[in-house]
């Protein structure tokens, strides 16, 4: 009898210790437990802005994917030859990068839109955060719709990683654009009139004009554009480019700087050494026709040439 009791007591002691030993992961935090304060809400919004500098957004490949099929660029890089010839597919690096990075931005925005409305904080700022997240989600979806046509339209965050949480049926391009318009209209109502280094009402109005122009909704595009035509312009063309200048003429900028060359990868994609750090074959190289046009504008005394090219030379 005693021999049978001892193993049973041992088993009970192991079971009793399970709750004590089983801890939630200490190296990660879930969104549901993260959003507790105004500081958390601001940090979440920062993560949505952060996706603007990813390689597949404005860090590199969105520019490449947009420019390479045009008549303005050529390439000596095998990775992007498919883009120049418009024979890309799902395995083309830039195609996957643009898709992935913009959806990262969408999902981060969806997380903010789910959790921030319940955070106890200043109601006016909370409303602005929601508006900025909707503006950014609209921008990411606008990029996706222009690049891929119809795409899955996810308006709630994918948090579990399960296939059922990620796999969403493809929406039509018009359905995506409809949601972009809704997000921008709501963002205009919620965002601040002006805000240094962040999106504002005029940012959303200008993007709405561009979306409607893309959709050939001419009257709606004109109405949205007219709402920002009263913005004060910079005094000179030259004053547009110094990083320290943040004039009202710029309605929204993706402001970030990396640790390469001029702060981004564009120099490495276009320029020869020693102006570029890396010596790999270039892409987005201006075509001979574009260079000839630039020479013509210089010969004609175009002030934009002096303002842009000479400033770049001085910086280098």
Short description:
This protein has 316 residues and is mainly alpha-helical. The protein has helices at 2-16, 18-21, 31-34, 38-50, 55-59, 61-67, 81-85, 93-115, 123-148, 163-166, 173-190, 201-214, 218-226, 266-270, 288-299, 303-315; strands at 73-75, 283-286. It has a two-stranded antiparallel sheet.
Report on this structure:
The chain has 316 residues and is mainly α. The protein has a domain at 35-156 and 168-232: Alpha Horseshoe (Serine Threonine Protein Phosphatase 5, Tetratricopeptide repeat), CATH 1.25.40. 56% of the residues lie in helices and 2% in strands. It has helices at 2-16, 18-21, 31-34, 38-50, 55-59, 61-67, 81-85, 93-115, 123-148, 163-166, 173-190, 201-214, 218-226, 266-270, 288-299, 303-315; strands at residues 73-75, 283-286. It has a two-stranded antiparallel ribbon with strand order 1-2. Helix 4 (38-50) packs antiparallel against helix 8, helix 4 packs parallel to helix 9 (123-148) and helix 11 (173-190) runs antiparallel to helix 12. The longest helix has 26 residues, at 123-148. It is globular and about 60 Å long. Residues 8-16 and 311-316 have low confidence and may be disordered.
């Amino acid at each position: 009898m005693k021999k049978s009791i001892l193993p049973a007591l041992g088993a009970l002691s192991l079971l009793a210790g399970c709750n004590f030993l089983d801890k939630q992961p200490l190296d990660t935090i879930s969104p549901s437990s993260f959003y507790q304060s105004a500081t958390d809400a601001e940090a979440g919004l920062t993560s949505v802005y952060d996706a603007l500098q990813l390689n597949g957004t404005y860090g590199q490949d969105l520019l490449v994917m947009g420019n390479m099929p045009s008549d303005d660029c050529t390439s000596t890089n095998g990775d992007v030859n498919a883009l120049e010839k418009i024979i890309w597919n799902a395995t083309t690096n830039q195609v996957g990068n643009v898709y992935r990075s913009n959806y990262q931005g969408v999902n981060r925005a969806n997380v903010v839109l789910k959790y921030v409305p319940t955070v106890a904080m200043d109601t006016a700022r909370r409303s602005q955060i929601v508006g900025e997240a909707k503006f950014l989600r609209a921008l990411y979806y606008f990029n996706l719709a222009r690049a891929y046509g119809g795409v899955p339209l996810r308006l709630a965050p994918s948090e579990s990683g399960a296939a059922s949480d990620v796999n969403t049926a493809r929406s039509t391009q018009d359905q995506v654009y409809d949601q972009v318009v809704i997000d921008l209209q709501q963002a205009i109502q919620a965002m601040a009139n002006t805000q240094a280094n962040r999106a504002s009402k005029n940012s959303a109005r200008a993007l709405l004009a561009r979306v409607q122009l893309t959709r050939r909704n001419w009257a709606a595009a004109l109405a949205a554009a007219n709402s920002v035509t009263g913005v004060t312009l910079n005094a000179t063309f030259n004053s547009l480019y110094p990083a320290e200048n943040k004039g009202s003429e710029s309605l929204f900028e993706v402001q970030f700087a990396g640790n390469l060359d001029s702060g981004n990868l564009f120099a490495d994609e276009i320029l020869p050494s020693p102006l570029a750090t890396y010596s790999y074959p270039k892409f987005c190289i201006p075509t001979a026709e574009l260079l000839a046009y630039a020479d013509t504008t210089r010969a004609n005394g175009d002030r934009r040439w002096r303002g842009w090219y000479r400033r770049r030379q001085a910086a280098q």
